[in-house]
Each structure stands twice: as C-alpha cells, then as structure tokens.
Amino acid sequence: MASQEADWGKLFGINSNSFQIMYPGCVVSSEDPDMLGRLRVRPLTEKYADIVNAVSNWDEEKDPWTSRDPLIFLPLLPYYVNINPEEGEFVNIIYQNQNYPKENKFYIAGVLSTPMAVEFEACSASQKNLASGNLIKPTKSLKNQNGTYQNEKSKGIFPEPKDNAIVGRGSTDIIFKKDEVLIRAGKVKSLSLKNYHLRIQIEPLFN
Q1: 133 belongs to a structural domain
Q2: CA 35, CA 43: separation in Å to the nearest integer?
Q3: pTM of the model
Q4: Domain range enclosing 71
C-alpha cells in the first residue's frame, strides 16, 4: 500500500459532529463479488490505515469484502436502480445509527462539478460545489447566465434543466421531455475535461 495519505478533515474543513447525519466518503473499490452494488468506502474524516488496523489481525489480501471488512457500505437506492460509483469517486455515506457506526451503513452517489465529468471525476474535484470545495478552481459553465451556450456545439449533448433523464457513463442517455423521449448512444465521440476544472489529486486512498 502507499505510504502517504492526506488529512482530508483538516484540508477541507470536514469534521464530524453530533448533528451530522451524512458524511463524505471516497470509494476504495466497487468490485462487489456479490454484485449487489456494495462499495468499499473510506470516510474522508478517517484514514484508511486507522480503520483497518482497528480490526484484529486484518489481512489486506483476504479480508476485503468479507464480514470483517469495516469499509463495506450498502446502496441506499434499491438494487433495481443501479448507480455504481467507481474507485476514487466521491460518495455520501449515511449511518442508520451513529452510535453503531459498524452496522447498517449506506451510500448514495455524490455530486459532480460539471456534466463533462460523467465518465469519471476524482473525489477531490467533485467537491467543488460543496463547502469543502473552497480549494477547487471554479468550473467553466456550459451555459452563459442568459441561458445561451458558451459553445453551440454543446447544445443537445446534456439534459436541459427542465428535462428528466437517465445519464450513462459515456455517450448514452435517456431523456424524458414533456412529450418526447430520446434514447441515445454515441451522442459524442469523447468528453474532454480540459479547461473545465482543476483536479486536485490528493490520493492515494490508502495509508
């Protein structure tokens, strides 16, 4: 494992308190062997080594994804709605009872800094619009304040503010307009994040 890890709590001003019900987390692994959408997540208020070292005789090769694994979180959404964040992405984590943080733990996918990041966005960069994102360079908006596109080539690629939609990781989506449904694949050749935000790489995830 890597030997260094940032103190996210100090860096982003993230602190746990008695009134908090939702916490920031970063995905360590999404390869659930049970294929139930579970994730291994490190709460950003803690260090990976501190968490796993609290488990007696922790084995990094054998114990992940077992009942001994303290990092397993269940999806808050039902299995029939599969939204699976990838390793290195931001998630919100929820404890059913804060007095028992090792039991009944859930996650819900986190926010993005721009629609351009639907393929992947690093945990640090996705916090741009959160209180913890004061170190993140502002993103370049797709639209001007008057509602026109900064680049007309962007028009039609993403759901409009009044649309309902299911958006895939790459060039696929289903857009529900008022009296129209669009089912698309291959809508773009690629999505470039160049000039859209600063990726602050504070990974590795482990210590």
Answers
A1: no
A2: 22
A3: 0.80
A4: 8-109
